[in-house]
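Appendix C: a fully annotated inverse folding record. The material below is reproduced so that readers can follow the format used throughout the book. The structure is listed first as tokens, followed by the designed sequence.
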């Protein structure tokens, strides 16, 4: 039996960030990971001279004053991760039109006004409203006081007005041409829900962060994983790989430790789970401890889609194909139709990444890697094996329809299906973003970090902050602050300011 202050189940970015901050706060921490390598979806894989990020193509808020560099500096590992920014946010290929979303809010607005002149005024009004939402969000306190809700509604009426709005509803108020709205909403595959379902507030925050810049970690996102794991170990903790947590131990209604691989016991004053809550509560804890209310709530949640991802070598010059670092290919202007196709099992919301445009070190000199990702229903039941190759071919054919020459230039090295993604992370159905990012399942409507069981916490994309590398890191910070407070070290985990664009609006330059 080994004694710790905190045991963290899972070494995804949401688990490792919580663990590293708690270790830095002086607590004795262990991370338990079932895989042989840390990182969850951020875990890199190598094929010969080629290094592939299986999931993360870019991160946000990683400029010099961004949240992630600040967190790494606090942990003493800032020199181990180097971020480079892309000049482009993305390029969208629609039938008959290419939309080049450049970095910066003004450039983004100008491009769309030029392409859709009939909606130029509507776009300007939309962008002013988006900025007002930010000013209102920035004016909101981090935590609401006793008269909080009423005061907050007065300070941030737009935020409250749109808290349940979909992207489609809001864009329809400002834009007359449905093609303008389809172009503005191009990023929906990053969030996993089409404009008719996606939370407008979430979309707005993501687009605002994208205006500031999208960043790649040179040498792959494994450098970020390794830096966080090193921060755990260098602050006296352990990262235990290759042994799954098999039980969360409970005594007198409180989580008191974790059983690993069915025999080893790690005692703890607090347990943090970075794993899928269905696994955490249903299998590791037992619903009898979690309670019926939570069980029913979890039973009502919708999963995000999963994905099929093709990892390949691009035997052509990306510029000649018209590709930038991130490219969406939409064979239809109607994202709703794409979503229906996707629900029926045909991959949709396809995007093509060329990571070597930002980091040539991932391949042999002069060669380019590419990853083609398509959303599919979350279903990891072994049935993808039979349709894997046909699905890959269909995705490449679809992409080739909008980016001619891509099919011939793309040499497949590896294919991941929902079964593969499930194997990587234990996520139900291979869901790539946790719960779907619809208004009823974002922010406070996701699961809280603090669970109904004393001493048991959640960190990662299934909990409050939600999906993406940045958000799970902020989730790790929020969870670590709660745990440190409970274990007698309030204030030992700094707030690190949250996403930096909000600080700029607050006039705060921490
Ligand atoms: C195809 C794809 C593309 C994406 N693209 C991007 C992108 O470009 N940019 C971006 O920011 N985000 C992207 N994302 C989202 C991002 O990868 C995730 O939001 C984030 O990595 C999730 O991190 P996490 O810490 O919540 O959990 P995970 O990465 O899911 O990690 C959970 C960990 O818990 C472990 N675990 C589970 N059960 C146990 C157990 N019983 N015992 C021990 N360990 C256990 C798992 O093995 C895993 O390591 C993408 C995701 C996918 C799949």
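Designed amino acids, in order:
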């Amino acid at each position: 039996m080994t004694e710790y202050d905190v045991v963290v189940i899972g070494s995804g970015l949401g688990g490792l960030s919580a663990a590293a901050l708690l270790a830095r706060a002086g607590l004795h921490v262990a991370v338990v990971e079932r895989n042989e390598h840390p990182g969850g979806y951020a875990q890199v894989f190598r094929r010969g001279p080629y290094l592939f990020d299986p999931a993360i193509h870019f991160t946000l808020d990683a400029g010099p004053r961004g949240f992630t560099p600040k967190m790494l500096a606090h942990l003493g590992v800032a020199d181990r991760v180097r971020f480079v920014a892309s000049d482009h946010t993305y390029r969208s290929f629609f039938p008959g039109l290419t939309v080049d979303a450049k970095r910066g809010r003004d450039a983004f607005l100008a491009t769309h006004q030029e392409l859709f002149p009939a909606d130029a005024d509507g776009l300007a009004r939309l962008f002013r409203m988006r900025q007002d939402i930010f000013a209102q969000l920035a004016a909101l306190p981090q935590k609401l006081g006793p008269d909080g809700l009423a005061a907050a509604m007065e300070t941030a009426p737009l935020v409250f007005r749109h808290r349940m709005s979909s992207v489609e509803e809001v864009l329809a108020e400002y834009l007359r041409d449905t093609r303008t709205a389809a172009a503005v909403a191009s990023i929906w595959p990053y969030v996993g829900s089409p404009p008719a379902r996606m939370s407008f507030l979430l979309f707005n925050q993501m687009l605002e962060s994208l205006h500031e810049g999208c960043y790649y970690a040179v040498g792959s996102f494994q450098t970020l994983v390794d830096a966080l794991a090193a921060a755990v170990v260098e602050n006296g903790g352990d990262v235990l790989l290759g042994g799954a947590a098999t039980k969360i131990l409970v005594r007198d209604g409180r989580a008191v430790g974790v059983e690993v691989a069915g025999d080893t016991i790690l005692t703890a004053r607090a347990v943090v789970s970075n794993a899928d809550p269905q696994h955490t509560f249903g299998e590791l804890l037992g619903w009898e401890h979690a309670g019926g209310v939570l069980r029913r709530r979890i039973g009502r949640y919708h999963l995000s889609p999963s994905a099929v991802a093709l990892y390949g070598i691009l035997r052509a010059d990306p510029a000649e194909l018209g590709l930038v670092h991130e490219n969406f290919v939409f064979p239809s202007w109607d994202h709703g139709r794409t979503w229906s196709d996707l629900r029926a099992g045909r991959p949709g919301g396809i995007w093509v990444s060329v990571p070597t445009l930002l980091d040539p070190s991932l391949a042999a000199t002069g060669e380019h890697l590419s990853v083609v990702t398509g959303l599919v229903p979350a279903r990891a039941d072994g049935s993808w094996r039979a349709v894997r190759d046909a699905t890959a071919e269909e995705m490449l054919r679809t992409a080739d329809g909008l980016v001619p020459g891509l099919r011939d230039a793309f040499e497949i090295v590896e294919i991941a299906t929902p079964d593969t993604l499930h194997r990587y992370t234990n996520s139900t159905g291979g869901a790539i973003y946790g719960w779907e990012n619809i208004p009823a399942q974002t922010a406070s409507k996701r699961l809280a970090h603090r669970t109904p069981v004393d001493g048991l916490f959640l960190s990662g994309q299934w909990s409050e902050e939600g999906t993406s590398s940045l958000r799970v890191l902020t989730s790790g910070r929020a969870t670590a602050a709660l745990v440190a407070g409970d274990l007698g070290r309030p204030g030992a985990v700094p707030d690190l300011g949250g996403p930096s664009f909000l600080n700029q609006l607050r006039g705060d330059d921490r």
